[in-house]
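>> Question from a student workshop board

For tomorrow's exercise we were told to take the sequence and the ligand below, predict the bound structure, and bring the output to class. My setup keeps failing. Could a helper post the expected result so I can at least see what it should look like? The ligand is zinc ion.
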Amino acid sequence: MIYPIRLYGDSILRKKANDIIEGELDVKKFSDDMFDTMACADGIGLAGPQIGLSKRIFVVDGTTLEEEDMKNFKQVFINPILHSESGDFWEFEEGCLSIPNIKENISRKSEVEISYFDENWNKFTEKFSGMRARVIQHEYDHIEGKLFTDYLPSIKKKLIRSKLNEISKGKCDVKYKIKIP
Ligand code: ZN
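>> Workshop helper replied:
Here is what the output should look like for this input. Compare the format with yours to find the bug.
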């Protein structure tokens, strides 16, 4: 099933999402649907709130990217806990399926340590770095109710304010299904 993507301005994107209780949701089916939804939108990461479910789950799929360390990075993160961020800050141009056609340089630390369950409820604690860490940080923010635009300095925010307003009214050019707030 392909879900419509929630856009900037939708209140669900601003809520801290809840843990999934084992058994309350078919996480295998749901994560497959998330992968399908994300593939239709050419995304590399997608979090529950972006398709209208305020639960702590996100998926990543870097298999279509050029970057060598992303090619085999396809997995589901359930009830993740971000333990630490470390390393140097580095800038990278981020985008978001919920904020179409806006890309901005965002500075984040280069390493994360995170615990999570996979779709079979196996628990892992792992370190990720570089692009993998970046995608995890962006998606983890989604389940905390944060968006990448929150990190922009106020002058940048002012510059994109009208574009964000248009997005929240559904006035944006996208090739995937969206749900207008
Ligand atoms: Zn996003």
